[in-house]
Each structure stands twice: as structure tokens, then as C-alpha cells.
Amino acid sequence: MTDTNTNNKKTVPSKAHPKVTATLRQAMLEFQRLAVTAKKDGKNPHFRSNYSTLESVISAVNQGNQFGLFFTQEIDYVYTSHMETKSEVVVVTTVRHVIDESTYVSKLPIIMSQANYENPQKIGSAITYAKRYTLQSVYGLPSEDDDGNEASKPTIQVSKPKMKGEDDGL
């Protein structure tokens, strides 16, 4: 993530927008103090779980507007070799502040199997996924771990009860 400030002047928030802070960092702090969460309004039948849709995440992060925060997201290509012969598709999320013009920039690659690049719906799903999780990450929104919860649960091994007279293998 990149943090840039292109303008060193400090402007006082206006009376019309009293919650707008002077800097992006102050705005992000005030936003995080709200403890905003994204509503889990999507259902994943494969994992039998609920998740926050992109629309729900956008609705949650837009609460930062009151402090002067806003964001943009775009799809871009990033060259991954020094000869610029290979590139990957990335979602670029930029969080900006209306007063100090600082920005946070985050780039997340779209990761898919090569076969899925021929399927526009798979590409769209991967882009939506990247947009959603990048916004959640940049704004610090809590999210349900869609695959880590199961992986982190302790495994319980149950031994088969031995019948009387079974050999212990000794």
C-alpha cells in the first residue's frame, strides 16, 4: 500500500461538513472508531456460509465519506518481468481524502486458472472478489474468513475402540 501526500497545506474542515478531518490518517482513524461492519447479505451454498457482498462493503466504507474519505477502484495491468513481456491483471484501490489530497493505493492481482480467462463470468467473479476484499482490507473492515476458519479448527482423532482379544500389534 502506498501513502502519498501531494499537498502539504492543512485546511480546516468547513462548518458545512464538521466531521471532515484535516488529513487522511485522521479520517481513517475516525472511520475505524465507528467499528463499521459490512452486512453479510450474500450466501455461498458451496461452503454453506454467508458473506458480505461488494454492495454491502461499499455501503459500509462509504460511511467514511463523513470524514472526507472516498475511494476509486480500477482494473489495470502490471508488468511482472523486467523485460515487460509478462503482465497480470490487478484491481487498484485508491483511498483519497478531500482536504489534504493524500492517497492510499493497494493493488491486488486477479488470480485465476488459465482456463478461466476464457470465461467472462469467472473473470467478473474474480474481479468482484478482489474489489471486495481489497476494500475490506484497506478500510480495516472485519470479514468472515471464507476458508481459514475450517483450516484452523483443531482436528480430533478418534481411535477405534479395540475389541477384547484384538492384537495390539506388539
What does this molecule look like?
The chain is an alpha+beta fold and 170 residues long. It has one domain (2-152). The chain has 4 helices and 6 strands, in the order E-H-E-E-H-E-E-E-H-H. The strands form 2 sheets. Strands 1-6-5-4 form a 4-stranded antiparallel beta sheet. Strands 2-3 form a two-stranded antiparallel sheet. Strand 5 and strand 6 form a beta hairpin. The longest helix has 20 residues, at 120-139. The protein is globular. The mean pLDDT is 82.
Number of domains: 1
Task: List the uncertain runs.
Answer: none
Percentage of residues assigned to helices: 25-40%
Order of helices and strands: EHEEHEEEHH
What global shape is seen? globular
Radius of gyration: 23 Å
| Order of adjacent strands in the largest pleated sheet | 1-6-5-4
How far the N terminus sits from the C terminus, by CA atoms, comes to 59 Å
Count of helical segments? 4
Mind summarizing the main beta sheet? 4 strands, antiparallel
Structural class per helix/strand content? Answer: alpha+beta
Which range does the strand content fall in?
15-25%
> What is the number of beta strands?
6
Mean pLDDT: 82
